Amino acid sequence: VQLVESGGGLVQPGGSLSLSCAASNMIFSLYKMAWYRQAPGKPRELVALITADSNTNYTDSAKGRFTISRDNAKNTVNLQMNSLKPEDTAVYYCYAEKFGYFLWGQGTQVTVSS
C-alpha cells in the first residue's frame, strides 16, 4: 500500500498549484482521503478531507481557495490550491484512512514566495 504525492513547487503569492496523490495496492474507493501540511516549527495540520462518499471538509484557512477532489477510477486525490499566500508554505502530505487503518505519503514541498 502506497501513497505518492506530486505537484509541489515554487509559486508566487496569488498563484495556483495542483497537488496529486496516487494510491496503489488498496481499494481506494473505501478510504477517506485528506491533505495535511506541516510548516517549519509547526505541528502537522489538516487542510482538507474527502470521505468515501465524496463529502468534503476544509480548514478555515483553505475554505474558498482550495478544492479537494477524488477520482476513484484513477485512484487519485487532488488538491487544487488558488490564491496562494506565503503562509501556505509547507510540506503537504497525503493521508488515507479506513476503519482505523491509516497511512501517509512522503510529502511534497510547496513554497509560496516572490
What are the SSEs and their pairings?
Blueprint: E1 2-6, E2 9-11, E3 17-24, E4 32-38, E5 45-50, E6 56-58, E7 66-71, E8 76-81, E9 90-98, E10 101-104, E11 108-112
Parallel strand pairs: 2-11
Antiparallel strand pairs: 1-3, 3-8, 4-5, 4-9, 5-6, 7-8, 9-10, 9-11
Description:
The protein has 114 residues and is an all-beta fold. Helices cover 0% and strands 54% of the residues. It has no helices and 11 strands. The protein has strands at residues 2-6, 9-11, 17-24, 32-38, 45-50, 56-58, 66-71, 76-81, 90-98, 101-104, 108-112. Strand 5 (45-50) and strand 6 (56-58) form a beta hairpin. It is globular and about 40 Å long.
Strand % is over 45%
Biggest sheet features = 7 strands, mixed
- Mean residue pLDDT: 96
- Spell the H/E element sequence: EEEEEEEEEEE
Unreliable spans: none
Number of strands: 11
| Structural class based on helices, strands and sheet pairing | mainly beta
Portion of residues within helices: under 10%
Discrete helix count: 0
Any idea what the radius of gyration is?
Answer: 13 Å
- Backbone shape: globular
Distance between the termini: 37 Å
Outline:
The chain is mostly beta strands and 114 residues long. Helices cover 0% and strands 54% of the residues.
